[in-house]
Amino acid sequence: MPDNRAAARAPELITKQMFMLFPTPMFTGMLPDLSVCDRIEKKLRELQRSGKGFPSPGGMILAYMTPDDLQNLPEMKEVVDVIMEESGIILDAYTIKRESHYITNMWANIANPNRRHNFHIHPNCLLSGIVYIKTPKNCGRTIFASPRMNSKNIEPTYVQKNELNADIFSMPPEKGRMMIWPSHVPHAVEQGTADEAEDRIVLAFNVMIRGLIEQTTARLVLR
Ligand SMILES: [Fe+2]
């Protein structure tokens, strides 16, 4: 039997619309003064040398993590001010009622530029973010995955990726670029192909709100 399903076209709807429902925002921009990155790197190197934080296990490729309360260091004030400002604007975009917001944790990774890092989320916060401090050419990208992975139980082959079928997002790492996203979005670091002479340095942070969430059966006091 010949397949003649495409022979005659059925009438289409009129006044058609396509709504993009329940978006996942990614906020990004550049620090206005890139020399902030150099000052931050100097402080991070000092922490690395002093033995504070979490050194990479002996014999493994470099993956040093600083202590996770960097937001309290005077050397971080410039970047903390930008993070507080931008995260306030984002919380306002969501119209989140709150008394205030604050950085719960801030840390940095100084790592081999090609080191990959598994997918993970950041718990116990509303917003998460990074600032690229040092980005050797071709170092690993931070990549973001769709939080709607469950919709991928049937995965056709796509001829071309577009915003309807994409499930991964990434941007080239760039010194001074800040990215902020809702903390439930899974992310990872891809394997890089950089010259290993230089380290990849990324500052990471989490943001939470203070105040009373007044909801019947879901009341929560956040101090
Ligand atoms: Fe992360």
Distance between the termini: 71 Å
Output the structural class: alpha+beta
- Round the mean pLDDT to the nearest integer and report it: 94
Question: Segments where pLDDT lies below 50 for 5+ residues?
Answer: none
Query: Percent of residues in helical segments?
Result: 10-25%
- Number of DSSP helices? 2
Global outline: globular
Tally of DSSP β-strands: 11
How much strand content do the residues show?
25-35%
What does the model show?
- With 223 residues, the protein is α+β, with helices and mostly antiparallel strands.
- Helices cover 15% and strands 29% of the residues.
- The chain has two helices and eleven strands, in the order βαβαβββββββββ.
- The strands form two sheets. Strands 1, 2, 3, 5, 8, 10 and 11 form a seven-stranded antiparallel beta sheet that branches.
- β10 and β11 form a beta hairpin.
- The longest helix is centred in the middle third of the chain and has 17 residues.
- It starts with 26 loop residues before the first strand and ends with a strand.
- The model has no long low-confidence stretch (mean pLDDT 94).
- The structure holds fe (ii) ion.
- Fe (ii) ion binds next to loops.
Summarize the structure in short.
The protein contains two helices and eleven strands; from the N terminus they run βαβαβββββββββ. By secondary structure, it is an alpha+beta fold. The site of fe (ii) ion has 4 residues, from loops.
